[in-house]
């Protein structure tokens, strides 16, 4: 059996908030329960959104929380030759697209349908790409993004067993369409980069927020085309604000770590994050918290058949 290897992969667009801490905690605990390694990767490809110094703030916050990673931290911007190699492998499946987001949205007669009978994948209003540039760029259009073809005849339904949500499926042809692997601004798209990085780092288990559940079938398809292993997945619930929106930097989520003393960090961040995950942990120190949280996570997994 391949040794467990997990990761936490934050974007340096600001400090970590409670929602980020929940995802980090779940991935860290899962690695500890399985006696595996836990890596940290900084996903900084979107240079326009990166905040100077945010990566170091993130790493400092993890250290203050007592979360020690294995090996060296990696930055995606230092790994771009790997994405170029992957693009070359995918060449026969890729084509240039000259469509803007507005044009794609305007081409839709309705927003993406949520197929009945396929539990687990949340409804999303992202328009399905209509295939405008599949047969070549329309007259007067310049190439912008690079898109990956999805199977058309027959359509492709991709399913997987999520350790938290159970079996989920997505018809990537009808619900996604051909998707971007290099953006119009020249940056590598998340879907390609994360698949390449996870394969290069030998990641066996991905524990992350359920907001990324919808992305998993596309990543499984890319893994298939690139001939790399499929990791196991576990998508934990996401923390929402008072308006029911996912807690994020875009919705004004506050940093969970502002240099508070350890006792305050424990009481106001670590214990609430554990409680959100369904863990009942009582501790007076950060070391004591992790000593109690690891077996609590293992019990939770066993009780719900998620091991």
From TrEMBL:
<keyword id="KW-0648">Protein biosynthesis</keyword>
<feature type="short sequence motif" description="'KMSKS' region">
    <location>
        <begin position="246"/>
        <end position="250"/>
    </location>
</feature>
<keyword id="KW-0067">ATP-binding</keyword>
<feature type="binding site">
    <location>
        <position position="99"/>
    </location>
    <ligand>
        <name>Zn(2+)</name>
    </ligand>
</feature>
<keyword id="KW-0862">Zinc</keyword>
<keyword id="KW-0479">Metal-binding</keyword>
<comment type="function">
    <text>Catalyzes the tRNA-independent activation of glutamate in presence of ATP and the subsequent transfer of glutamate onto a tRNA(Asp). Glutamate is transferred on the 2-amino-5-(4,5-dihydroxy-2-cyclopenten-1-yl) moiety of the queuosine in the wobble position of the QUC anticodon.</text>
</comment>
<feature type="binding site">
    <location>
        <position position="208"/>
    </location>
    <ligand>
        <name>L-glutamate</name>
    </ligand>
</feature>
<comment type="similarity">
    <text>Belongs to the class-I aminoacyl-tRNA synthetase family. GluQ subfamily.</text>
</comment>
<dbReference type="InterPro" id="IPR020058">
    <property type="entry name" value="Glu/Gln-tRNA-synth_Ib_cat-dom"/>
</dbReference>
<feature type="binding site">
    <location>
        <position position="190"/>
    </location>
    <ligand>
        <name>L-glutamate</name>
    </ligand>
</feature>
<feature type="binding site">
    <location>
        <position position="249"/>
    </location>
    <ligand>
        <name>ATP</name>
    </ligand>
</feature>
<feature type="domain" description="Glutamyl/glutaminyl-tRNA synthetase class Ib catalytic">
    <location>
        <begin position="5"/>
        <end position="255"/>
    </location>
</feature>
<feature type="short sequence motif" description="'HIGH' region">
    <location>
        <begin position="10"/>
        <end position="20"/>
    </location>
</feature>
<feature type="binding site">
    <location>
        <position position="97"/>
    </location>
    <ligand>
        <name>Zn(2+)</name>
    </ligand>
</feature>
<keyword id="KW-0030">Aminoacyl-tRNA synthetase</keyword>
<keyword id="KW-0436">Ligase</keyword>
<dbReference type="GO" id="GO:0016874">
    <property type="term" value="F:ligase activity"/>
</dbReference>
<keyword id="KW-0547">Nucleotide-binding</keyword>
<dbReference type="InterPro" id="IPR000924">
    <property type="entry name" value="Glu/Gln-tRNA-synth"/>
</dbReference>
<feature type="binding site">
    <location>
        <position position="43"/>
    </location>
    <ligand>
        <name>L-glutamate</name>
    </ligand>
</feature>
<feature type="binding site">
    <location>
        <position position="129"/>
    </location>
    <ligand>
        <name>Zn(2+)</name>
    </ligand>
</feature>
<dbReference type="Pfam" id="PF00749">
    <property type="entry name" value="tRNA-synt_1c"/>
</dbReference>
<dbReference type="InterPro" id="IPR049940">
    <property type="entry name" value="GluQ/Sye"/>
</dbReference>
<dbReference type="InterPro" id="IPR022380">
    <property type="entry name" value="Glu-Q_tRNA(Asp)_Synthase"/>
</dbReference>
<feature type="binding site">
    <location>
        <position position="133"/>
    </location>
    <ligand>
        <name>Zn(2+)</name>
    </ligand>
</feature>
<feature type="binding site">
    <location>
        <begin position="7"/>
        <end position="11"/>
    </location>
    <ligand>
        <name>L-glutamate</name>
    </ligand>
</feature>
<protein>
    <recommendedName>
        <fullName>Glutamyl-Q tRNA(Asp) synthetase</fullName>
        <ecNumber>6.1.1.-</ecNumber>
    </recommendedName>
</protein>
<dbReference type="InterPro" id="IPR014729">
    <property type="entry name" value="Rossmann-like_a/b/a_fold"/>
</dbReference>
